[in-house]
Amino acid sequence: MIILEAHGYRLELAPERGGSVLRLDWQGKPLMRPVCGDTIFDVASFPLVPFSNRIARGRFNTGLRKGTIAPNFPGSDHPHPLHGFGWLAAWTVAQQSAETAVLEHAYPGGEWPWPYLARQTFELGAEGLSTSLSVTNLGDAAMPAGLGFHPYFPRDESTLYRGLHRGEWYNTPDCLPSSLDEHEEAIDWWQGEPVSTRAVDTAYTDREGALEIDWPARGLGLTISPSQALTTTVVFSPEGQDYFCVEPVSHATDAINRAPETMLWLAPGETADVGMTIAARTLA
After folding, report:
1. Tens of pLDDT along 134-174?
2. How far apart are alpha carbons 69 and 125 in whole angstroms?
3. Domain tally, the chain
4. Which of 51, 64, 211, 232 has a Cα at 20 to 30 A from 249?
């Protein structure tokens, strides 16, 4: 485990466990849901690379390359593989200091027919936790790429989430997109109501501005500032649970089949880089 501490923040990382975050605290208060078990779904956050969310039946054909990815949902035979390969791989520590850590994950090619190198950088500063995630195409043909972050946050009945987006995808029962509800302007799809008032697992498109979470009962809030390429936000708010996920990502579900032009296409040797900053704040 790697521990970074600076400016009132404390970050715990587990490189061998999917390059994941185990917890993020500010002034002793958890900002992310602390690790709560032994599976990858029990960590505080994990990276999404080289794609986000699900690929229908794991099948795709880009013209130059095609492939079939086996189901990878831990403990399940769910037919749609999800979240790429980084979250289930061991990452190596490339660099570490008191305030910074750099992790790397190399994929040699296989079911995903492009070898790649992924890198995460974590840095604690006065403005909060800055995290970057990159992927470099090590293959000999253009690679469609997707990147993102999958943090879990604590939730109670008063927790508020605000994010402005133009579209909300409606899904089939197995969480594949079926239709898109779009507005002319970006809106708050919760309309100021607590997170628990909507049970969703879907993608919101055309993000505008930052994402905010408030815990009024704790007198605490945070602001997530994603980089420009993270145009989509996946929100997972399961009914009756004490957590939810707000995931800044670069494309919507099954984009490689439904909208391949929305992915980050990388020429051989090219790198795509995204990032986000998480900053804590005290509620008045």
Report:
1. 999 999 999 999 999 999 999 999 999 999 999 999 999 99
2. 39
3. 1
4. 64
